[in-house]
Amino acid sequence: MDREAAAGLAARSAAAPIPRVDVLGVGISAIDMSQAVAEIARCVEEGEQHYVCVTGVHGVMEAQRDVELLRAHNRSGLTTPDGMPMVWAGHWAGAKDMRRVYGPDLMLALCELAAERGWSSYFYGAADGVPERLAERLTKRFPGLKVVGCMSPPFRPLTLEEDGAVVQRINEARPDLLWVGLSTPKQEQWMAAHVDRLSATVLLGVGAAFDINAGLLPQAPRWMQRIGLEWLYRLLREPRRLWRRYLGNNPRFVVRILRRRPFLRSF
Question: What's the whole-model pTM score?
Fold first, then answer.
């Protein structure tokens, strides 16, 4: 995306709210990748603080059972269509220009722009050593990318003192972009609870993008992604961990979406 296109998209974003598609109560932003990047760029440049959720079927179905997660999705600055079912739901609702905004690709696009514009990034999440490996790979790929910190929190809940220390550490680094890789629903709830306590301008919950862009987790072939079969690829690679998620959530999603058609509305 060239600078003029980004500026034009950002101006339109500033002029009017980005529409959302109601997918079982979750407001999925009716956008494509260039619009998502432009809107986040506008927020960084104007100092408008937001958090961004990157959401597919798993996030939508978890939100059916978790009111806090549903509220976090719908209070975000953007909730991007991470999976093809979200895109198809958007098209069904009339958002014909809606395209997939995949977390790992969004991370790469924004890090490229951050290197050009001098924005700083902080990586919070994933297992020990993963944020550092991710930062190393991204700074090699995008010379000039400024990384001001990395942290892997424990998987257990933090004490109040530990949580306060995390907030202080991130605030002292003063990142423009705070990348959060805690998986759903933890990352969305964490961003919603912490956005007002952090100095970072934009928080982005991108989950598996940490492991994927660190080179630790292979991606599905692009043709499988385009036809909505990435879930099958991941299930075949990690059946013991993911079978409940995909074989439970996916059929329930289909049944529910046929009963409650997606539609455009304000959130």
Answer: 0.90
